[in-house]
Fold:
Amino acid sequence: MGEWIGINRRARRCYGFDEVALVPGDKTVNPKEVDTGFEIAGKKFKVPILAAAMDGVVDAKFASEMSKLGGIAVLNLDGLQCRFENADEVLEKISKASPQEATALIQTVYTTPIKEKLIAKRVKEIKRKKGTAVVSCIPTFAEKFSKIAVGAGADIFVIQSTVTTTKHVSKEYKSLDLAKFCKNTKIPVILGNCVTYETTLELMYTGAAGLLIGVGPGAACTTRGVLGIGVPQVTATVDAAAARDYYFKRTGRYVPIITDGGMNRGGDICKAFAAGADAVMIGSSFARAKEAPGRGYHWGMATSHVNLPRGTRIYVGTTGSLKEILFGPARVDDGSQNLIGALMTSMGSLGASNIKQMHDVEIIIAPSIQTEGKIFQVGQRVGMGK
Structure:
């Protein structure tokens, strides 16, 4: 499979959201009667969309509000919320920095050490408001931070890095034993990120409760430009879903996959579910919420790297409340609001009563899906032409 790109070298064609479309089937369903819920580690959530663990998106207040609306927001333990008692002051400075100053400022503020007491404090702030406390950190700090977070009442722990594998090689430091970590941690563990069938399968055998799928597709991420790595999200999700289904047949344990990044409209989210996702994780759409701490700005987790930033600060604006972004009414014309309404309507039109039935929807290669008949929208930069 693949095309020749030179002597003795073949390359596989892979696909992103803008290159495919979903085909309506032979039945339709009342959108009000579809089930958008997803389950992870025995817990069910009615909103299958996770807010990404980024400082411009999630703080304790945002996580609590997301919980009230039926979803999950992931708090970054490596971020500003656990480095500064008053992170809001720092976020204000970042929002006021010029584009030329932004990366240097972000690099500087992230050199402030993480304060372990703030980890417990932030988790307790979420739990005090009866929220689901889901927290994230890089593998280096996972063993130490997980104990603090669990002790404070965290519900789910996420280990996240640019690329996660079970075979990390290093002479400089001891790598984290993921299987041992998942076994010993008293709460469910989500691992990420990965994009291939083989790695997805190997990570499932660690005992992870879920996996994040995606390398470099985020709106504020520059990993694909800086490092040249990544797989378009439709192909990455399809491959990961195949591994999930094979693993389920072999073990009887269903491990949900969460497509992480590359989606900023309702249609992208619908395509992710058709490709096989059980849930999705997004950042930029939620960075637009009034409740988001970034004041309309958004930056990736690797933006702060002191030597090789792999992200940038972008301005997405503040367009509405978190409730409007999830459930409407939509006040913008670009598909970035009422994401659940869009998903329900798409499911109804496709004849899918639940998320797992979305996995069986026909997908076609359709590069003209964004432009066909849209000449006025493109010319006037409205709707799909933005």
Notes: The CA atoms of residues 109 and 159 lie 22 Å apart.
